[in-house]
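Database export, one record per block. Field names are fixed; values are copied verbatim from the stored entry.
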Amino acid sequence: MQSKNRETFLKIGVGMVVGLFVLDRMVLGPAIESWKAQSERLAELRVKVERGRQLMQREKSIRARWNEMQRTDLPDDDSMAESDVFTAIARWTSASRVGITNLTPHRTNHDGGYDTFEWRASATGDQASLGRFIYEIESDALPMRIEECELSTRDTKGQQLALSVRFSAVRIDETRKTAR
């Protein structure tokens, strides 16, 4: 009789172990994975909500900056846009007292509703005047950005420097300005 009880207990034990294994693999494992995935989604949503709140708090300053960018945007007419930039370049060179030795414009149309105007310029001067020229480009009201900048010396003492700079401006399509 004791062996039949032992057999029954072993069968019950094996059944419980197999049941716990199946419960772990079929129910608990997927449930834990689902809870982890849900926790990750909740964390991502919390980050997105916080970013949204920050954007809403900064809405006035962002809109003011966008309106300023639209106001100082280059004109829609290509020749007027180039004229504005050439006027700005003359203003920068007179403020910084550099000599422009080469100036090459290039315009690129983009499908995204904007055009890119790019200029390559070579200038000569001392370190202070070339630094001022770079400052004038970056701080001008026109939407300019320096893409590349390379300084090299023209004499053995380093008193005369040569600057090769590539800067660009973006012109937003008129239909895009009013849409936002």
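Remark 1: The chain has five helices and four strands.
Remark 2: Strands lie at 99-109, 114-125, 144-153, 161-172.
End of record.
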